[in-house]
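Case study 2.
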Amino acid sequence: MRHLVLIVSLLILSACASPLPPRDSGMAWVELYTTASDLLMAEELDGKRLTDGRYFQVTPGAHELIARYRFEVQGGGSLMAEPVQRTCEVRVRYDDFAAGQRYLFEARELAMSAQAWLYDEQRNVLARAKVLRCGVF
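Prediction:
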């Protein structure tokens, strides 16, 4: 059993260490960003599961992006309680992705929930994400 856990762990870590694919100039590139202690991973693009949750590469036009944001909160309502990992699914829709452009999808903790935005290269807010659900899942 230990060997199986070790093998699965190594496979997961190797996926995180693999290089990103080259940027396609005919597509828009969407990077994900959050603080180092949190985790933001791409889940779906236009209703289809993604194989690599570190980025989105999309065709020009309208798209719906869903990501999973995990962060730590103080548990139990007491300062002495153990921290709890909380996960929120966030969705952003944007109609004008442009080929060759870089975008940033950023998420932050907001009490027991999350907030997220889509930015262009000049850090202008293009869309605000909607929190679909949050919990300990």
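The chain has a mean pLDDT of 84.
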